[in-house]
User: Fold this.
Amino acid sequence: MSKSDSTKAQIMRAAVQVFTRLGYDGAAVRDIANEAGVNLGLIRYHFGHKADLYRDTLAYVSEQYNEVCLQALHQAMEESNTPEAIIYSWLAAPISHWQDDTVATGEDVLCFLNKMGYEPAELTRDVYESHYSYALQEWQEAVQAHFPGIRKGDWLWCLTCLRGMYFNIVAHNDFTLWGVPSIRDKEAAIQRLAADAVALLRTYSV
Assistant:
């Protein structure tokens, strides 16, 4: 890795931490510079404005996320192709398959992506559509193939429930929103969540 690439990775690593902790509006570029141990000029040189840094960082980690999730998905489809395995494969992939921690760990990325859901749509929409949604759609289609009779509204309801429970497992390092201690064995919890999700989907599938 060149010195320039190393510096960019250092800045993006700090950006993941600060944007996750403070949110986009709460984070200042100076906060990210201090976290990264660089001067403001380097951030402006490599990324421009704060919005550019946010989007570039989100795009970078989304590509990593897609790669490991699709790898786990295809492996599950080849080995068993059960709905439980398919749901689990995607949810657990950032924990079980993540390899490159240069910018963020898989769990850091999950926290960052969870925070993305609370940011203004105009900030995240273009990156979501270009770098994130296509792989997620492939996973959703793989799940839906096992429940061909499920109505769109019921599917979206089940997906919303699944997302909420999932991020309560993986995206809280200390305490959940309700003050419950964080879950230590996340992969085991995701396995239970996948089984519960399949049971719920079967109640809605015609």
